[in-house]
Q: What sequence folds into this?
């Protein structure tokens, strides 16, 4: 299945960044046939920081604004929920509060600084962003990263996936007032951040990935400890998760909350767990380019918040296992032979896609004299926010956190 | 799986370390805080690492409630405003409104997660700034700052 | 002698007020003077008892007017409200200077005076018809909304017809229609006369004419229709029903009907969004409770069991207290809402927000106090009335017989729910209309001195009647109900049953509140610091008007839970959405109205078809008929 990740304008032509068979491609847009082939083309073409801004009118209808400063969301972003009482009729999402103009700030920087800055776009997706950015720059330079770098990138991306999925499940549990479960999940979340620090020197795995290079590698004894920490994490999480599923209240709150049908998911251009929860497979797993053991693609059928949580829980456990297996053999990874390194170009264009915890992150980079001349980023939270707005229709207010938290999207990521 | 209380108590999650503060914390003018500190967190343009660190701070390992530190849901209940990140232009208005809503006396702690970025706006004339940290602090450092704030301002 | 003179003078004043209807101020001043005379007359009624005027119309039929205690009580209650409305109209009628309003006002008051002093059925019916027609004339003052006015007239005539049938039945079974011979009236008389009075009291399902009230009729007309007119229904029932022996079955019917009506009134008040519709349904609710109280009074009257005898006194006192509280509070509510509505020139509760800051403190306070009285907030008089009816129902276990217990239980459930629902509705009124944000709404300047004076006096009267409850109970003539207990000195406490069942003392509540408030006030004054005003907090940006919770959204939660009863429908047309609810008990009346309209149109088309030949035929037919009748008579 091909997914359209982004639409960009360069000179007089329109180009499409597409995920095809696990690879990032840059295609020329053909207008009408593009719309037929990719149902989310209109959404990506007119990128608007005010999502679904048209108001609802009617006798008794008013606009309940949630944000931009609330302790529930904490991020700077606002929801305008139109309602005539209990039910949300329409949700307008305003991303302007978090628009930090990262694309503009990365333009003109040299490629090294661009990758460093890309980690600051959304720090909990730091690895995904920097991997996508560095792959795009590497493509523009005409090189491919060596095996060690590719392997470590895979390890880091899965580590990022683990703590983000734990965070989503923690948020859903606290929204459902499962306080004990939430506290334990919060402990596991903190534990995973500490493992990150041991693995990479940074709790958010920042400052590690660079162009054809990783900055920090843990030594063997640290790796042994990390492996046993991940084993404990996985065991504890599985126990807690299985136990929580026996609570009918918890399940009842998530079941049928924020349902998305397959067609809706496709027309929004979702990727990642939100898409897979509707029963569709994407092949984002191959984007970093290296898996010793293929990670299974987890899907659910219902497309509601429970399905999205289930997808994430299963992925989490799979990723832990993957990391344990992968790290055990990390000492035998070989760099490609240095002599085979081709000449790097100092100008060119390239695209890169990586598999972030909430979907595909895409980058397009145009390099000149080793400087970024033009950069576009396509983050998974942008279609994700459209999905949140769509899924909030006809929900009652009390189900708001279940819908919003289950997509795992962030205003920081959507507004970039 | 064990009964919840047994399971939880066996885990022994809360740490028993002392938390030091990486920066000096000033005194809030006319402060009258007793044994608790109520913090309101506002994100004005951070890169989300700070948000996740606040979530991590609320985990059982740190157990901030034993120090009397609580996160509030409204600035009207707060003693200290914790500002995350450098402000986006659109957020300057809401930030000023939030500061207006905090009852006096109060203090502001600023966590600046991109200190090297000159392109971003810097704060102009924030009142009662008692501490500023450059970079993304670990939760233990953040907890140290808050505990220091409590002890400095205790009558 | 004096009573005759007072009565005659009052009649003359009312009539001249009606005649001088083009001089706005003069009419209302005359109405005021006449109402003061009625008040004095009512007070005189406490001591006198008997006919003071008689006029023989035809052999066997004479008109009799007289006074007794019951008339006196109702005359005082009505006159207080008439005085307030007459003075209020001095300012209000600037907005509605129509002659029909002032003339109708005076004549309907005259009709009510006639009803209250009637001593036999015929006189009562004359007064009834005068009141109805005059009220109809008042409703036409705005020159629009004929349909609602005609519907009111139709219901008024139904009520009159039932009274006619009832009194005819009484004549047939007892040979007289004087009130002294009521006990010989018979079943048919009781049923029809009750129906006649119940229709006037707005009991469900006869409440269809209430919809006329939320049209554009002037607020004084609405106030008159809601408070004194329904009071006449109560008076009629109080006078007639208890005097009839062996009426237990019918009393149970009245009890249940009253409770259903109370519940239905509360239910629809919750969904009401027009500024006048909510008080209209509140009238239905209150009158339902009064009907239940009268039912209990009747069912326990004449019992030899002393506790049931006490209960009958208590129930009658309950109906009178409820009538008093309703009359005062409803008039105050309509006056204050009228003031606010005219100042803002709007129709819905949502639009008429923030009266306290937008219009004035007096009407806002009027709305608050009237609404609190309806919500049973101590120590106001409404609290006493609703407590009394609930206590009456609680004591229904004392009645022998399973049927009474069963029906009383049902009525208790419905009454309790009614009180809850009406509180919900009244809070909407207080929270949005009286004390809400005004969003910068500007009110039109208008003359309001007399409006303010009358609103303030009624507010003080409601509070005074609550706090001075012992005086009210003594005024109604039930000194046995007052007692003292647990440190509350006699006679400040009202006891609901013998042996001791329940007891309240709003007087004592007020005294305690006054004492206890001293310390907080002293503390507040001592610690007063500079106050800093900020916007309300909503995410860092001040709220704008579209972001405020609407009154409809407030009610929507109940409209959704009880959607089967309200027939709640969600209408969606693209980006336009709304909720529609319905009062399903009005459906029969609506279909009946449509049927009548169709028949009328059909008939009109057939008969008045514009052809000369048809009209000539009619003339010939009439000619022939007149000829035939003349022949027969001869």
A:
């Amino acid at each position: 299945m091909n997914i359209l990740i982004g639409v960009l304008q360069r000179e007089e032509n329109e180009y499409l960044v597409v995920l095809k068979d696990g690879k990032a491609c840059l295609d020329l847009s053909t207008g009408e046939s593009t719309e037929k082939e990719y149902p989310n083309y209109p959404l990506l073409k007119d990128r608007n920081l005010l999502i679904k801004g048209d108001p609802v009118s009617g006798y008794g209808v008013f606009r309940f604004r949630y944000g931009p400063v609330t302790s529930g969301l904490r991020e700077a972003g606002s929801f305008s929920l139109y309602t005539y009482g209990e039910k949300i009729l329409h949700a307008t999402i305003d991303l302007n509060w978090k628009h930090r103009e990262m694309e503009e700030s990365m333009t003109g920087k040299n490629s090294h600084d661009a990758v460093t800055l890309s980690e600051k776009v959304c720090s909990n997706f730091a690895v995904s962003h920097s991997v996508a950015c560095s792959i795009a720059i590497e493509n523009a330079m005409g090189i491919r990263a060596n095996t060690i770098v590719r392997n470590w990138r895979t390890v880091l991306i899965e580590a990022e996936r683990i703590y983000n999925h734990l965070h989503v499940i923690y948020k859903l549990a606290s929204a459902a007032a499962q306080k004990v479960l939430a506290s334990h999940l919060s402990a596991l979340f903190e534990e995973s951040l500490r493992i990150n620090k041991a693995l990479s020197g940074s709790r958010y795995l920042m400052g590690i990935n660079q162009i054809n290079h990783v900055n920090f590698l843990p030594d063997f004894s640290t790796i042994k400890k990390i492996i046993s920490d991940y084993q404990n994490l996985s065991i504890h999480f599985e126990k807690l998760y299985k136990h929580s599923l026996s609570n009918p209240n918890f399940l009842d709150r998530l079941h049928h909350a924020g349902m998305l049908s397959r067609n809706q998911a496709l027309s929004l251009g979702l990727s990642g767990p939100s898409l897979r929860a509707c029963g569709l497979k994407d092949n984002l797993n191959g984007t970093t380019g290296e898996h010793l053991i293929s990670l299974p693609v987890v899907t659910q059928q219902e497309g509601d918040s429970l399905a999205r949580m289930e997808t994430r829980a299963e992925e989490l456990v799979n990723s832990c296992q993957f990391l344990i297996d992968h790290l055990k053999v990390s000492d035998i990874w070989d760099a490609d032979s240095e002599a085979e390194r081709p000449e790097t170009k100092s100008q060119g264009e390239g695209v890169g896609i990586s598999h972030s915890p909430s979907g595909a992150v895409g980058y397009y980079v145009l390099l000149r004299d080793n400087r970024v001349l033009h950069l576009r980023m396509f983050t998974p939270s942008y279609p994700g926010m459209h999905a949140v707005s769509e899924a909030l229709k006809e929900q009652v207010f009390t189900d708001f956190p279940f819908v919003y938290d289950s997509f795992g999207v962030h205003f920081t990521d959507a507004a970039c | 799986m064990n009964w919840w209380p047994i399971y939880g108590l066996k885990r022994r999650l809360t740490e028993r370390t002392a938390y030091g503060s990486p920066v000096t914390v000033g005194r809030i003018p006319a402060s009258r805080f007793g044994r608790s500190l109520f913090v309101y967190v506002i994100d004005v343009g951070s890169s989300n690492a700070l948000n996740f660190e606040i979530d991590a701070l609320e985990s059982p390992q740190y157990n901030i409630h034993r120090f009397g530190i609580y996160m509030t849901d409204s600035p009207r209940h707060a003693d200290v405003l914790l500002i995350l990140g450098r402000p986006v232009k659109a957020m300057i208005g809401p930030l000023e409104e939030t500061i207006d809503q905090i009852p006096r006396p109060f203090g502001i702690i600023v966590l600046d997660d991109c200190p090297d970025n000159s392109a971003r706006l810097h704060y102009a004339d924030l009142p009662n700034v008692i501490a500023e940290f450059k970079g993304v602090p670990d939760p233990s450092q953040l907890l140290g700052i808050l505990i220091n704030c409590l002890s400095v301002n205790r009558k | 002698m004096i009573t005759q003179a007072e009565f005659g003078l009052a009649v003359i004043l009312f009539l001249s007020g009606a005649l001088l209807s083009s001089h706005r101020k003069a009419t209302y001043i005359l109405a005021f003077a006449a109402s003061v005379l009625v008040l004095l007359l009512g007070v005189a009624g406490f001591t006198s008892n008997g006919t003071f005027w008689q006029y023989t119309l035809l052999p066997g039929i004479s008109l009799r007017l007289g006074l007794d205690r019951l008339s006196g009580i109702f005359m005082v209650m009505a006159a207080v409200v008439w005085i307030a409305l007459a003075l209020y109209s001095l300012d209000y009628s600037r907005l509605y200077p129509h002659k029909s309003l002032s003339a109708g006002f005076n004549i309907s008051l005259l009709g009510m005076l006639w009803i209250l002093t009637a001593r036999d059925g015929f006189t009562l019916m004359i007064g009834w018809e005068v009141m109805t027609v005059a009220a109809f004339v008042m409703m036409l003052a705005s020159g629009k909304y004929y349909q609602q006015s005609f519907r009111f007239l139709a219901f008024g005539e139904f009520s009159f017809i039932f009274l006619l049938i009832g009194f005819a039945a009484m004549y047939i079974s007892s040979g007289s229609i004087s009130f002294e011979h009521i006990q010989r009236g018979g079943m048919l008389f009781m049923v029809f006369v009750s129906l006649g009075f119940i229709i006037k009291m707005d009991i469900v399902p006869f409440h269809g004419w209430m919809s006329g009230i939320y049209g554009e009729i002037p607020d004084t007309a609405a106030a008159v229709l809601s408070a004194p007119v329904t009071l006449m229904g109560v008076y009629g029932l109080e006078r007639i029903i208890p005097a009839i022996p062996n009426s237990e079955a019918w009393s149970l019917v009245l009890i249940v009907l009253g409770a259903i009506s109370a519940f239905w009134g509360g239910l629809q008040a919750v969904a009401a969004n027009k500024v006048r519709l909510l008080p209209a349904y509140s009238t239905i609710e209150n009158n339902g409770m009064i009907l239940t109280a009268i039912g209990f009074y009747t069912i326990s009257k004449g019992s030899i069991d002393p506790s049931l005898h006490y209960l009958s006194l208590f129930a009658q006192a309950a109906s009178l207290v409820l009538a008093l509280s309703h009359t005062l509070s409803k008039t105050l509510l309509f006056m204050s809402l009228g003031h606010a509505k005219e100042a803002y020139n709007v129709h819905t509760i949502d639009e008429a927000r923030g009266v306290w800051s937008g219009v004035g403190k007096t009407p806002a306070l009027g709305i608050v106090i009237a609404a609190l009285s309806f919500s049973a907030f101590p120590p106001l008089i409404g609290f006493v009335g609703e407590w009394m009816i609930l206590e009456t129902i609680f004591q229904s276990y004392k009645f022998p017989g399973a049927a009474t217990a069963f029906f009383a239980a049902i009525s208790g459930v419905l009454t309790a729910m009614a009180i809850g629902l009406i509180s919900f509705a009244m809070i909407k009124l207080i929270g949005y209309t009286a004390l809400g944000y005004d969003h910068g709404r500007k009110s039109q300047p208008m003359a309001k001195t007399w409006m303010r004076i009358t609103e303030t006096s009624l507010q003080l009267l409601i509070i005074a009647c609550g706090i001075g409850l012992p005086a009210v109970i003594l005024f109604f003539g039930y000194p046995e109900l007052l007692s003292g207990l647990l440190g509350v000195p006699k006679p400040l406490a009202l006891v609901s049953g013998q042996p001791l069942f329940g007891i309240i003392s709003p007087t004592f509540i007020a005294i305690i509140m006054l004492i206890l408030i001293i310390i907080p006030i002293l503390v507040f004054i001592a610690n007063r610091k500079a106050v800093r005003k900020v916007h309300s907090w909503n995410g860092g940006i001040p709220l704008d008007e579209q972001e405020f919770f609407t009154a409809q959204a407030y009610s929507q939660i109940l409209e959704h839970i009880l959607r089967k009863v309200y027939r709640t429908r969600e209408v969606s047309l693209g980006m336009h959405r709304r909720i529609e609810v319905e009062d399903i008990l009005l459906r029969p009346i609506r279909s009946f109205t449509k049927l009548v309209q169709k028949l009328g149109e059909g008939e009109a088309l057939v008969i008045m078809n514009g052809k000369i030949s048809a009209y000539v035929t009619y003339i010939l037919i009439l000619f022939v008929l007149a000829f035939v009748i003349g022949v027969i008579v001869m």
Remarks:
- Chain A is about 45% helix and 20% strand.
